[in-house]
Amino acid sequence: MALFPQRFIDDLKHQADIVVVIQDYVSLKKTGATYKGLCPFHGEKTPSFHVNRDKGFFHCFGCNVGGDVFKFLELHEKVGFADAVKLLAQRFGVALPEMEESDEQRANSAERETLLKVHESAMVWFRQQLASNAGARIRRQISDRGVTDATSEALGLGFAPAVREGLKAALLKEGFSQGVLLRAGLVVQKDDGSVIDRFRNRLIIPICRDTGSVIAFGGRAVDPDQQPKYLNSPETPIYSKGRTLYGLHLSKNAIRQRKFAILVEGYFDFAQVYQAGFEGVVASCGTALTPQQAQQLRRFTGKVVLSFDPDTAGQGAAVKSCEMLVEEGFAVNVAILPSGDDPDTFVRKHGRQGYAERLEHSSPYLEYLLDRAAANHNLNTDEGRVKFLGDMLPVAGRIPDAAMRDRFADRLAFKARVTDEVVRAEIRKAVVQKQPALTNREVQSFGQVTKAEKGLIWLLIHRPDDAVPALETLDGPDFDGLSSRSVLDLARKLNEDKGFSPSALLERLTMVDAQLVTAIASEGEAHVHDALDCVRIIKRLRWERERAAIQREIDRLQEVGGHEGEKLQELLVRKYDVIQRLEALI
Ligand SMILES: [Zn+2]
After folding, report:
1. Comparing C-alpha atoms, which of 512, 513, 519 is closest to residue 491?
2. How far is the CA of 145 from the centre of ligand 1 (A)?
3. Which residues sit opposite 282 in a β-bridge?
4. What confidence score (pLDDT) does residue 100 get?
């Protein structure tokens, strides 16, 4: 993506009040100098999400996420920097400057544009086929499944007749090239070289982006012995299965309004639930939800109710989806249906009222798991209780929120009839084991940032006039081995290039560094108040590292013995020099 001129970015940032932007998504209350609200990036009940209007950054003390207004949009809308800039410009009615696109970029966006157009045309054609005489049998099948014309219309259902070159001929006639049809996955090339329609003799279900553009199709078999039962579009430049939630374009407003989403598995589950008036529904389409799909959903709600068949739940995608959602911090409820029923069959049998009752009596997923595990083991025996805890501890370890984990520990202890201390200690172990390596490293490096580094970073944001001259007295080797090295390096580089400003620093930080900087900057005051003190301590740390390295080398030479007197002398001189420098800094 082409870069915007820096002047434009600066002007935009100047106009775009971060509080106003974030309030589009989060309700904020002013407390003292900052604004507080419930974090949109992790599930929480007490606000730990802070926005600093003057300095233009946000930070969550719960999940550590932080950054400037662009980072907020990048994270919240799941877009890159350039799209975050565009969104912000739109929000504040600022015209975008002319951008210079490379040939390759122009070609890519032209290709995507063409792929979207060919899908649009294909949908029109499939729908015409459904409405035609040839589609009569399929229309009957749809209505036999209890799907009304209105729902069929809303879903954009269509029909691919049993011919080799139906859609292909129609689209070629419209002027699309065969290459485009192949890249869109609408036709396939056979071994003999012939190119024919991918979808033949199938009910067609368009798959859309949440903006409503058609990006792929699902094709369902219409004859009893037809294989496979479902055939989908392949992955293309505009479609990735793991990033698309079926039906979100129809349900996103209802989900936002009702503050929860119903998650079902199949297209027809979706159709029935949607038709029964529960418009806030999405379908995972048979596979377990991916974290990317969860993030899509997160833009509209942090709460999900899942309804599934208890018989297949154990091995099914539903359980995997639940666990992933819990890990991502969603509140997840489970509405159990009678054995053998999915939402499609259940709604058809019991109607809107019956389904509403199931939703009402849905229980939190963790409770559901507890009950299920308790039913599977004999809790009257020691062995049964050990197995029960063995099943449940890994689950507990994956709960991201500490308070929630504690409540779960209490429930677990109660069921297993052991003391809660024991359970909590075990859960802590499970949590540690579960920590992915990356997070561990990040947490550690946060911990190792010294007070002097923290002080300097705080001052760079809040009192740059004091901090910048101090920063200028540091040089490259002073930063070696510091946890905040990348931040201080960037600040120094900005200062050398075109002038340091807190806003320029925030804008250019990586996600991880932005967490660190906004965490420090959100604190009420600096750990070390004087910028020159910070610099002095940082320099002292450098010379102490150096002294330790020299000493290690001296020790090594002395251990080896005798032959390197000259080398030893040189090291002793260097050590003396370092000590002098250190003393000068005290
Ligand atoms: Zn958070």
Report:
1. 513
2. 43
3. 263
4. 60
Residue 230 dihedral angles phi and psi, to the nearest 5°: -120, 135
CB 571 within 8 A of CB 550: yes
Q: Is the dihedral of CA 555, 557, 559, 564 positive or negative?
A: negative
CA of 352 to the centre of ligand 1 (A): 36
Token pair belonging to 212: 């409503």
pLDDT digits over 417-429, tens only?
A: 877 777 777 777 7
Is the per-residue pLDDT at 313 higher than 80? no
The CA–CA distances, whole Å, from 13 to 61, 70, 319, 483, 584 equal 24, 9, 43, 29, 44
Asked if the peptide bond before residue 161 counts as cis, ω within 30 degrees of 0, the response is: no
> Average pLDDT, whole number, for the chain?
86
Q: What are phi and psi of 435, to 5 degrees?
A: -50, 120
Provide the sign of the torsion angle of the four alpha carbons 110, 111, 114, 115, taken in this order: negative
pLDDT tens digits, 140-185: 999 999 999 999 999 999 999 999 999 999 999 999 999 999 999 9
Hey, what are 122's tokens? 């294909």
pLDDT tier at 331, thresholds 50, 70, 90: confident
**How close is the Cα of 444 to the center of ligand 1, in Å?**
19
141 backbone dihedrals φ, ψ, rounded to 5° = -60, -40
For tokens 């709600």, what's the residue? 301
Helix (H, G, I), strand (E, B) or coil at 167: helix
Q: What distance in Å separates the CA atoms of residue 499 and residue 353, rounded to the nearest whole number? A: 65
Is there a contact between 43 and 259 (Cβ–Cβ < 8 Å)? no
Alpha helices in 264-342 (DSSP H): 267-275, 291-298, 310-313, 317-327
Q: Measure 298 CA to ligand 1 centroid, in angstroms.
A: 12
Beta bridge partners, 281, equal: 262
Question: What length is written for the chain?
Answer: 586
Return d(Cα 401, Cα 393) in angstroms, integer: 15
> Edge to edge, what strands does the sheet with 331-336 contain?
281-283, 261-264, 303-308, 331-336, 363-364
Q: pLDDT class for 564, splitting at 50, 70, 90?
A: low
Write out the two tokens for 58.
């946000």
CA of 299 from ligand 1 middle (Å) equals 14
Tell which residue, 297, 409, 319, 434, has the closest CA to residue 368. 319
b or e along 432-469 (b: 16 or more beta carbons within 10 Å of the residue's beta carbon)? eeeeeeeeeeeeeebeebbebbbbbbbbbbbebebbbe
Dist CA 363 CA 369 (whole Å): 10
**How many A from CA of 218 to the centre of ligand 1?**
36
What is the separation, in whole angstroms, between the first and last Cα of the chain? 50
Q: How far is the CA of 481 from the centre of ligand 1 (A)?
A: 29
Residues 273, 348: Cα–Cα separation, whole Å: 9
| pTM for this entry | 0.60
Return the bridge partners of 231, or none: 219
The alpha-carbon radius of gyration of the chain (Å, integer) is 30
Answer yes or no: are the C-beta atoms of 427 and 405 closer than 8 Å: yes
Residue type, 457: I
